[in-house]
Amino acid sequence: MAHRITWLETGHCFDAGADEAVLSAARRHDVPFAYDCRNGACGTCRVRVVQGQVRYDDELPMGLSEEEAAAGQALLCQARACGDLVVSVEPDLGPPPQRLLARVDRVEALCGDVTRLCLELPVEPDFRFHPGQYMNVHLPDGSHRSFSMASCPDGARVDFHIRRIPGGRFTEGELTQLQPGDALEVELPLGSFRLHPQDYRPIVMLATGTGLAPLKSMLESLRGDEDCPPVHLYWGARTEADLYLDAEIRAWGEGLYDFRYVPVLSRAGEAWSGRRGHVQQAVIEDLGNELGECAFYLCGSPAMIASAKAELAAQGADPAFFYSDSFLFQSELVAG
């Protein structure tokens, strides 16, 4: 039995089989929903179900929390329609991804296991990206590695923060050999993680490790913006040495309307006088009754994101204003 799927914003209508992922049916009918990983992890194909219900083969996909599902959100790459559906998501009006040959401008260490990679892209008149998006680096064996842009759109130069993965083919191999002028084949921009200024809410950003990168891109894009809302950045790391941009971040408040930065260490030494524990705990302690008024941007480890979504929702935060990007390479891509 086929079910009728309607995209509210665009008017697209198509049929999906009862046992067919909605995204698969959409692709079959050339309906341009955004997507990327197709395994329920990245959240790019997230929509709001306005009418009808969806189901999943087993448990909820990794990129969707119970709280978000209860609030009517769904991931089309894994969702099966239980009947006719009406779904809502703003169409992606950004440029399509381009596969380009980039040149290495600079490679430098930020801390013990994090490297800054600066690339120069070919000058493309129509090239732009949304702060928060990422690129793929294509390797000679046909595989690729994904890294978020750490700089805001500014000409042809793009920066990345790359954590070394033990045994990683790229992060412990090719990256360590790169020199200025070397070529890398890249594909960008990718992903749906980006700012949502239409929310008109205070922004709370939670990052672990190099999850800081896309949030840095967002924050740089907000500097000097007269409509910039209050922004709280909570950055989680293990030790003080892992806070590789600590001094730079402390100066960002000069260009933002109302900015607060809170580093949080899970394995702090005795000399650390700042916050300890996990970023979501610090957010809950600081904001309390204000949580329901905020929009949340979460980036980093899947464990942090899943835990933060559950704990924040339990304390009154609205899952409709959760935006996240999980960094999955650590646990699943040993090849780094």
UniProtKB/TrEMBL annotation:
Cofactors that this protein relies on: [2Fe-2S] cluster; FAD
InterPro entries, alphabetized: 2Fe-2S_ferredoxin-like_sf (IPR036010), 2Fe-2S_ferredoxin-type (IPR001041), 2Fe2S_fd_BS (IPR006058), Beta-grasp_dom_sf (IPR012675), Cbr1-like_FAD-bd_dom (IPR008333), FAD-bd_FR_type (IPR017927), Flavoprot_Pyr_Nucl_cyt_Rdtase (IPR001709), FNR_nucleotide-bd (IPR039261)
2Fe-2S ferredoxin-type domain boundaries: 3-93
PROSITE patterns, A to Z: 2FE2S_FER_1, 2FE2S_FER_2, FAD_FR
The FAD-binding FR-type domain, residue ranges: 97-196
Molecular function terms from GO: 2 iron, 2 sulfur cluster binding; oxidoreductase activity
Record-linked Gene3D superfamilies: 3.10.20.30, Nucleotide-binding domain of ferredoxin-NADP reductase (FNR) module, Translation factors
SUPFAM superfamilies, per database record: 2Fe-2S ferredoxin-like (SSF54292), Ferredoxin reductase-like, C-terminal NADP-linked domain (SSF52343), Riboflavin synthase domain-like (SSF63380)
Keyword field: 2Fe-2S, Iron, Iron-sulfur, Metal-binding
Protein known as: CDP-6-deoxy-delta-3,4-glucoseen reductase
